[in-house]
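STRUCTURE:
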């Protein structure tokens, strides 16, 4: 039995003539530890599907289960707890707070965690060290490069040590060398056991994943194991 399960999942926007079936009748199962690339053209429904998987967009149809939990059967508060416990999210744009330091940005998800301020700082520093940015902890987002901002976003997503990382076009704004660095980072996280589901329309990025799911007009049109063509060993 898979650990992340979508059953007949659908998300419809608008009504009547204007109704858009952004995601329609999608079924899949993902096991812990997989690295999945979700591919498809612009408007195909990738972000909609990812936000449903992120417990932040109620489906119009179907069910979504993680670790046996019916995610949309939870009330809002339980779902917020679920998100904190299970999910890290890297958004399409970095969504960093411009007036908070790199360190403070990474600490944000720990706001309500039962930890002292010192423990939160330590956790955030550990996450920053993981993404190779501990030396830039005091900078503001405007004082680092795009690739570094993306790494901060990854650091913030993993600071809670979630079992699942969801990433929406994590390299959409980056050049190919910087994209490669981010992909290597995600692959390392995956090798440490994190389940990764990444939206991308870049084949070069999808090559780092072990499984590719393709979505077209809201439907899953292809789902195959590809066996990680790009490997960590590619960099030092
Ligand atoms: P992708 O991420 O693959 O580019 P999206 O999931 O963003 O695709 O969008 C899928 C479809 O749903 C598109 O036709 C888009 O215009 C539509 N859509 C997305 N979000 C909304 C929304 N909040 N309201 C209405 N339509 C939306
Ligand atoms: Mg999108």
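SEQUENCE:
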């Amino acid at each position: 039995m898979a650990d992340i399960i979508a059953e007949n999942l659908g998300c419809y926007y608008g009504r009547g003539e204007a109704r858009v079936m952004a995601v329609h009748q999608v079924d899949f199962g993902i096991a812990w530890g997989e690295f999945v690339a979700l591919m498809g053209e612009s408007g195909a429904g990738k972000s909609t599907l990812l936000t449903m998987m992120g417990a932040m967009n109620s489906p119009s149809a179907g069910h979504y289960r993680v670790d046996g939990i019916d995610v949309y059967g939870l009330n809002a508060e339980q779902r917020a707890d679920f998100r904190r416990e299970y999910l890290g999210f890297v958004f399409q744009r970095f969504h960093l707070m411009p007036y908070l330091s790199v360190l403070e940005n990474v600490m944000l998800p720990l706001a309500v965690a039962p930890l002292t301020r010192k423990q939160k700082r330590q956790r955030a520093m550990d996450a920053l060290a993981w993404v190779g940015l501990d030396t830039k902890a005091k900078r503001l987002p405007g004082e680092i490069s795009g690739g570094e901002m993306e790494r901060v976003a990854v650091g913030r997503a993993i600071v809670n040590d979630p079992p699942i990382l969801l990433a929406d076009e994590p390299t959409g704004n980056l050049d190919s060398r910087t994209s490669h660095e981010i992909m290597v980072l995600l692959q390392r996280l995956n090798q440490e056991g994190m389940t990764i589901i990444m939206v991308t329309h870049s084949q070069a990025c999808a090559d780092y994943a072990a499984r590719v799911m393709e979505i077209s007009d809201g439907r899953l049109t292809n789902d195959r194991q590809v066996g990680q063509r790009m490997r960590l060993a590619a960099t030092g």
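REMARK: The chain is about 30% helix and 25% strand.
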